[in-house]
Design brief:
By secondary structure, this protein is of the alpha/beta class. It has 19 helices and 14 strands. Strand 12, helix 15 and strand 13 form a beta-alpha-beta unit.
């Protein structure tokens, strides 16, 4: 097959920390390895028809994003203006940025700020199709504007179209501006129905998303497929031998402590992904069993500032909970391989959420303490048996789980036996094979 993959965020590095980029990159990588020809259409702030070749031979075209370019110029102008003004007239630039960029989102970012990129990208895609004659177009979101390209290519060029949803649109929306009521919400719902009822097939990362699409839009079960996020075993094989990077970040007294690691930011888009009760549980244990809890070290990578750091200071648990900036994916793999346990914090209000870090946690082979209940992440933990899931809203249950992990670490024996057969289903190579079946419209057999 000749496939046009439309992915707004597409990083050519296999160690990219961008979740959306990793998913698109893995599809491109493994679909190409299976004998398909993949052409990628992504974005660039300037130079609209920039072409490059990816690591695995995929050709990459980048269409200009006029909003991104204009916004960058606007914010740079604000920064220069702030430097010219006297100290009395200055205020933090990031504060001014928020005030200057938030007010118009509700009015002009419909369905998102990439709308204008989508129209430019369609012009490029149309010219590419004239020359390449694609068999199918695969659009992945967010941003949802990417699906406009698929819709136009199906409508005007009669191409088969598969829409891939990494997040819900109006179902458990990740953007705050979609959570209100009124004209904006009704318009979003109309556009969502118009676009997502048109693809030949749809893929989602979780069952709740697929069920919602079937129920709300009447899409048949045969046309909606669940292809979750996953891990790339080749990333772990490609990691170089340890070179002291682990000792640089992990606790120096780790021989006397159990090191529990949380990788990645606590997304601001998921405001209920909150470690407050975790910190409170640690504080209670410190008061009740100070010597016992002193053997624990919890390290968050990807948090440099924010309310979490202030909470830890206020609760007086800085000796147990530590924060580090983000690290490259290669270093992150080293750290996960050397940690004693992994920590997962999920949204307790969104059933479709399974953060991508859970799949790398699987590959690390370390036990996972998951603050997850009644969502996709909790189902994955139970299915693969890689750790313990607890109610993220129950402080006592969290404290008991921490005690259990510490006790198991002291005994050097955790009661979790990962089910490798289930874990293998989340390999990106296997997931790309499933995507290849979805994209192949000439294949008559059941997918």
């Amino acid at each position: 097959m000749k496939i046009l993959l439309v992915a707004y965020a597409y990083d050519t590095s296999p160690m990219s920390i961008l979740t959306g980029s990793q998913r698109a990159f893995s599809f491109s990588k493994y679909l190409g390895a299976q004998g398909n020809e993949v052409v990628v259409l992504s974005f660039r702030e300037t130079r609209p028809r920039f072409q490059a070749t990816g690591l695995f031979g995929e050709r990459i075209y980048r269409s200009v994003d006029p909003i991104s370019a204009a916004e960058s110029l606007f914010l740079n102008s604000i920064s220069r203006w702030a430097k010219i003004g006297g100290p009395k007239n200055r205020c933090p630039i990031n504060t001014r940025r928020k005030k200057s960029t938030d007010w118009h989102k509700r009015l002009f970012y419909f369905p998102d700020r990439q709308l204008y990129w989508a129209f430019n990208a369609f012009v490029v895609a149309n010219k590419l199709h004239t020359k390449e004659k694609f068999d199918v177009v695969l659009t992945t979101s967010p941003p949802e504007s990417a699906h406009l390209i698929g819709w136009m290519m199906k409508r005007f060029l009669a191409l088969h179209w598969v829409a891939d949803l990494r997040d819900g649109w109006m179902f458990e929306p990740y953007l705050e501006i979609r959570k209100g009521r009124g004209l904006r919400q009704r318009a979003e719902c109309f556009l969502e129905r118009m676009l997502l009822s048109r693809p030949d097939r749809i893929t989602t990362v979780s069952k709740p998303l697929a069920v919602d699409l079937r129920n709300r839009f009447g899409i048949s079960k045969e046309d909606v497929f669940v292809i979750p996020n996953g891990f790339d075993p080749e990333e772990w094989c490609a990691v170089e031998p340890f070179s002291g990077i682990v000792e640089k970040f992990l606790d120096k007294n780790r021989t006397k402590r159990m090191v529990m690691v949380h990788m990645g930011r606590l997304s601001a888009a998921r405001k209920d992904r909150d470690p407050t009760l975790l910190f409170a549980a640690i504080q209670d244990l410190k008061r009740a069993k100070p010597e016992f809890i002193s053997q624990l070290s919890v390290i968050f990578f990807g948090i440099e500032s924010g309310p979490e750091i202030e909470q830890v200071r206020r609760l007086g648990i800085e000796d147990i909970v530590h924060f580090h900036p983000s690290v490259p994916k290669r270093d992150a793999i080293h750290i996960m391989m050397e940690a004693d346990a992994m920590l997962l914090i999920t949204s307790h209000e969104q059933r479709s959420i399974a953060t991508s870090k859970i799949f790398d946690y699987m590959q690390s082979g370390k036990p996972v303490l998951a603050l997850a209940k009644d969502n996709t992440a909790a189902e994955i933990i139970q299915e693969t048996n890689i750790g313990l899931k607890v109610d993220p809203k129950d402080k006592q249950e969290i404290a008991s789980a921490i005690e259990q992990f510490l006790s198991c670490w002291m005994k050097k024996s955790f009661p979790f036996a990962p089910i490798q057969e289930k874990i293998d289903h989340y390999s990106r190579k296997a997931l790309a094979q499933k995507m290849a079946h979805v994209l192949n419209f000439e294949q008559k057999e059941s997918i």
